[in-house]
Amino acid sequence: MLRNTAGLLGLTALGATVLGAALAWIAPLTWTLIAVLPMMGPSQDLRMQVAGWLIQPAGTTAVTACTAILAVTGLLAYALRGCPVRPVSETAPDR
Q1: Are 67 and 10 in contact (CB under 8 A)?
Q2: DSSP assignment of 47-62, as one string?
Q3: What's the burial of 10, exposed, middle or buried (CB within 10 Å: 0-12/13-18/19+)?
Q4: 24-74 tens-digit pLDDT
């Protein structure tokens, strides 16, 4: 669970860096929906392991490396760039 949490937080940070805080949820949700597709499951194929890293068994080296890369990349991107500044009119609720 810690591995998946770190990867999803990295994806959220990347989403915030690229899309802004209001849309940061899109990246982790999209990857989660892809991972739970019926064709996904524990696999020996590297591409399937990376695409479905959320549902792979613990101790899979490729999956652990993928989530570590996502977590570190997201943390660094957010720390160095942060969220894009949006005008108040774009983020304010409609009246």
Answers
A1: yes
A2: HHHHHTGGGSPTT-HH
A3: buried
A4: 999 999 999 988 888 777 778 888 888 888 888 888 898 999 999 999 999
